[in-house]
Amino acid sequence: MHGGTRVSAEYDFTEDVDPGTKRHVRYPVGETYLGDPVEIPVTIVRGERDGPTIFLSAAVHGDELNGVKVVQEVASRYDPADLHGTLVCLHVVNVPAFYAQQRDVPIYDQDLNRTFPGKKRANTAQRMAHRIYQGFVSECDLGIDFHTSTRNRTTIYHVRADLEDPSVERLARSFGPNVVLYGDGDGGSLRAAATSDGISTITVEMGRAHRFQAVLIEKALEGVESVLAEYELLPGRPVHWPGWYVTTAIDTEKRWIRADSGGLVEMEWGPYPLVYADEPICRITNHFASREDVVRAPFTGLIVGVLENPVALPGHPVCHLLRLDADTRDEIEREIETGEFDGYRIHGDWIDE
Ligand SMILES: [Zn+2]
Question: Which residues surround ligand 1, an ion (CB under 5 A)?
Fold first, then answer.
């Protein structure tokens, strides 16, 4: 690895990094079969003045790359002289999965995002999670964890957050997303573990795995800046509020629409991810084109996630649909007319680069 100071597992960034400085470190979270250290790259940007400490983490799933670019940019963009507080940039959390360019830790395919806050003496993934959590996350006040869709799917740019917690809701809104899906997080996720320890944390879901999607990365950088403004790490900057905003209640208003037949899938919706009740979402045909099954929208909504690999089995999710109220639908229709919604177009950065 190039650059960065190799540090020990006892490393404490709150003591090591002086106010007004930036440090790049390589922090050990495990060992390889050769007995060499597995190290994660971390940048600490400690502002000249005091303020909140916020972590930004990427590649908890090793092939979800958009956030890696966001964290790299955040780590280089901000000058400690301007900051009131500290940025903890965890560039690549799941290093073994990142090496393999796959989602889960290669050892026994463990999902690192089901193991937080981890355990000191347990399996490989739990030990990794424990080191990362104790070394960095537990020292923070706030967190933003960047993800993408799982491979073969894509997702609209959105935030996931436990909106029942007012301090999490403040963080979610100040990031400035149009869509926030409510949830207290899967057990063992970084977001759920940190939030339950009083470290308000949101997950940002952006696009596809295995890609850098420039439009989404730019949006996320604006979101980070807006959060830094809201919490006065960057006093005097504007907080960004979106023109429209939808959240889900606990479970009712979003639904995975599933195929009822197996075959070849052709998407029918688009170019915008707004579909009206009873409109076709996709068409599933058999190889002889002798059977066709049209999947229709059960209600007017926003498509927030969609299948990309164009084959389905009965029960396969083909899209994730979020119900819209009339006001939000009107606002989206207005933005489609003015072009403000183009970031969400099928031929924009969401579906096709
Ligand atoms: Zn993920």
Answer: 61, 64, 147
pLDDT of res. 339: 81
In a domain, 352, yes or no: no
CATH number where 335 lies = 2.40.50.100
Same domain assignment for residues 168 and 221: yes
pLDDT class for 250, splitting at 50, 70, 90? Answer: low
Query: How many angstroms is it from 195 CA to the middle of ligand 1?
Result: 17
pTM value? Answer: 0.89
Mark whether 39 and 132 lie in a shared domain: yes
CA of 110 to the centre of ligand 1 (A): 13
Residue 76 Cα to ligand 1 middle (Å): 24
Q: What is the DSSP string of 164-222?
A: TSHHHHHHHHHT--SEEEE----TT-HHHHHHHTT-EEEEEE-S-TT---HHHHHHHHH
Count of domains for the chain: 2
**What spacing in Å lies between the alpha carbon of 90 and ligand 1's midpoint?**
15
Tell me phi and psi for residue 229, to 5 degrees: -70, -45
Residue 220 and residue 314 in one domain: no
**Phi, psi angles (nearest 5°) of residue 176:** 80, 30
Give a yes or no: residue 351 inside a domain: no
Nearest-angstrom CA–CA distance, 162 and 191: 9
Q: At residue 105, what is the residue type?
A: V
Domain of residue 316, residue span:
253-344
